[in-house]
Specification:
Elements: E1 2-6, H1 15-25, E2 30-38, H2 46-70, E3 75-83, H3 85-92, E4 98-103, H4 111-122, E5 126-131, E6 141-144, H5 149-165, E7 169-174, H6 195-205, H7 208-211, E8 217-222, H8 226-234, E9 239-243, H9 249-265, E10 269-273
Parallel strand pairs: 1-2, 1-4, 2-3, 4-5, 6-7, 6-9, 7-8, 9-10
Antiparallel strand pairs: 5-10
Helix pairs in contact: 3-4, 4-9, 8-9
Length: 280
């Protein structure tokens, strides 16, 4: 397994690296640390870049060495790139199974959070966004489902992660009860989930008990909008897992929007799962 880790600040804490090394140690992963010297603000000459590049390369080697020494079961490489942090990290992740980046929880308008949203949207592989060190690591894994094939992939990732790490798994379907003021006849607002919603949840978790006999599974159906329901359920969780899109064109837009909202607000570490998934 190959994990690419974006290292933004070379000094201080590295929450993305900490998450990736803990995750990768159980899988004997190859980890590539990537720091990008940002030249998007102005076009930099080779002469101007020489000093920042040498400094970044030295510091990143130190970070890689410390990670390797503290976690012998992984292999760590370090590379410094030049250009746009978003574009370079997306490119670096082209051959990766997982991309791990950091962001600041609750600060959706700062640079790191905006970059995290763009990277999660554009990356060719699954992405984990780890919150800064000020957020304590919680317990339990929460996964959002909607009946789509993509949410089934997310569910499998979440179940494997929870089983490997000895965590409880909460499977949540948020059906999004409309607000009364958004429809012409408020007295006709649906206040109960459809029978189909219960069936989606039951079918989603049907095979998990056989595959993960020791896994504790809890299922919930919420009337909240997906981003609100998932945020509330995962505030004290270890990991929140969502698919990158839903089962219809509208659902694709909604779930894509949901995952971006959650990456921006970051209630805990958030995994946005793509394609056939990442072995967790």
């Amino acid at each position: 397994m190959k994990i690419v880790v974006g290292i933004d600040e070379l000094d201080g804490e590295h929450p993305a690296l900490r998450w990736a090394t803990e995750y990768g140690a159980r899988r004997e992963a190859d980890i590539e640390l990537v720091h990008v010297v940002d030249t998007t603000a102005r076009r930099a000459t080779d002469e101007f870049l020489e000093g920042p590049l040498l400094s970044a390369e030295g510091k990143l080697r130190d970070v890689a060495r410390a990670a390797q020494e503290s976690t012998p079961l992984i292999t760590v490489e370090a590379h410094v790139r030049v250009g746009s942090p978003v574009n370079e990290l997306v490119t670096a992740a082209d051959t990766a199974d997982l991309l791990v980046i950091g962001a600041h929880p609750g600060e959706r308008y700062d640079g790191a959070s905006r970059r995290a949203v763009r990277i999660a949207r554009l990356a060719p592989c699954s992405v984990v966004v780890a919150p800064s060190a000020v957020v304590p690591v919680g317990t339990g894994v929460v996964v959002g489902i909607d009946g789509s094939e993509q949410s089934q992939v997310a569910l499998r990732f979440a179940a494997e992660f929870a089983d490997r790490h000895g965590e409880k798994l909460t499977v949540l379907l948020a059906w999004g009860q409309p607000e009364p003021w958004t429809i012409a006849q408020p007295d006709l607002v649906v206040t109960e989930p459809a029978a189909e919603d219960g069936l989606i949840v039951a079918e989603a978790i049907a095979g998990l008990a056989g595959d993960y006999p020791d896994l504790v599974i809890q299922s919930e159906i919420s009337a909240a909008r997906p981003e609100r329901g998932l945020y509330a359920a995962s505030v004290d969780a270890r990991l929140l897992v969502v698919g990158s899109h839903g089962r219809t064109m509208l659902a694709r837009a909604l779930l894509g929007s949901t995952s971006e909202e959650l990456v921006a607000d970051l209630p805990c570490a958030v995994a946005v799962i793509r394609g056939t998934g990442t072995t967790s």
